[in-house]
Amino acid sequence: MSSLIPTKRGSLLFPALALLASLASFSATAAQVSYNFDDNVVPAGTTVNGVAAVSGGVLHLTDAGQAGVNGGFAVPDITGGKSVGNLHVHWKSLIGAGQNGGADGYSFNWGTDLAAAGAGEEGTGTGLSVTVDTFDNGGGETGIEIKWGAPDHGSAVGASRVAFLPLPKDDPGNGIYLRKNAFVEADLVVDNNSCRAIFTYDGQTVSADLPGFAGFAGGNFSFGARTGGANDNQWLDDVSITTGLREIVSQDILA
Q: Nearest 5°: phi and psi at 203?
C-alpha cells in the first residue's frame, strides 16, 4: 500500500504526483563510447573508408604524401534509436608535415543523412558539422566553424555555416595555428536546453545557436578528411562520444 504525503496545504497526494509536481528537468546519459586505437585495429562496430587506417596506436584519416584522397571514420548510432539532444565529443587531433603547404582539413559530423564515404573538411549531411579547414580555396575559409541544417554541408565552401573563427594554417609568430604536427585537444558540446553548440580546438572556441534543434533519433557520427595536391597527416586519437537523452522539462503543477 502506498503511503500518503501531506502537502503544505494539508491535502494528501500520492508520492508519484508529488514527485511530478516538483520535477524541473531530467536528463540521462544514453550511451558512451571511447576509442584509443592502442590495439591497432578498427574498433568493433565502426568502419573506416577511403585511405583511413589504424596504425601506430592512432587513427590516420590521411597521411603526408597522399594527394587527392579522402579518409573517414564512421560510428553508427550508439543509442539504439533513442532521441538524443545532449552531446559531448572529445578527441585529440594532429595535422601537419605534408607537402605543398599542407591541406585540406577534416570535419566531425552528427546526423541521420551522413555520406557513407567521401566526406572532407566541409562536412556532410544536413545535421551538425564542426570543421577544421587548413586550405583557402578562395573564400577565406581557413579556420574552424560550425555548420547546421540544410543544404548539405559538403555542397559548397561555407554551406550552412552558423559560426566561423578564422585561424592561420601556419605559425604567424603567436603560436595560434592549425598545422602543428602535434596532437592538440578538440571538444564539442551540444546542449539540448539552450539549442547551442560549442566547439573548442586547441584552446580556440567558436559557438552558435542551432535554430530548430530537436536532437536526433538514430543519429550517426563520422569524421572525414581530404587532401588535394597539397596534403598532410590528419590523425585522431582518444575519441570519446557521450550522448544524453533529450531532457524532459516540466513546470510546477501545484499552486
A: 85, -5
Cell digits of residue 69: 584522397
Q: How far apart are CA 136 and CA 160, in angstroms?
A: 18
Q: Helices (H), strands (E): how many in the chain?
A: 1, 20
How far apart (Å, rounded) are the C-alpha atoms in residues 142 and 5?
62
Mean pLDDT by 10 residues, the chain (255 residues): 38 41 50 97 98 98 98 97 96 98 98 98 98 94 98 95 98 98 98 97 98 97 98 98 73 42
Phi/psi at 154 (nearest 5 deg)? Answer: -85, 0
Residue 172: partners with Cβ closer than 8 Å, 6 or more residues away: none
Q: Are strands 105-111 and 128-133 parallel, antiparallel or unpaired?
A: antiparallel
pLDDT at 29: 73
E strand map for the chain = 5-6, 12-13, 25-26, 29-35, 47-50, 53-55, 58-62, 70-75, 83-96, 105-111, 128-133, 143-148, 161-166, 184-191, 196-201, 204-209, 216-217, 220-226, 233-245, 248-249
Q: What are phi and psi of 146, to 5 degrees?
A: -120, 135
CB-based contacts of 26: which residues, under 8 Å, 6+ apart?
247, 248
Grid coordinates given for 128: 551538425
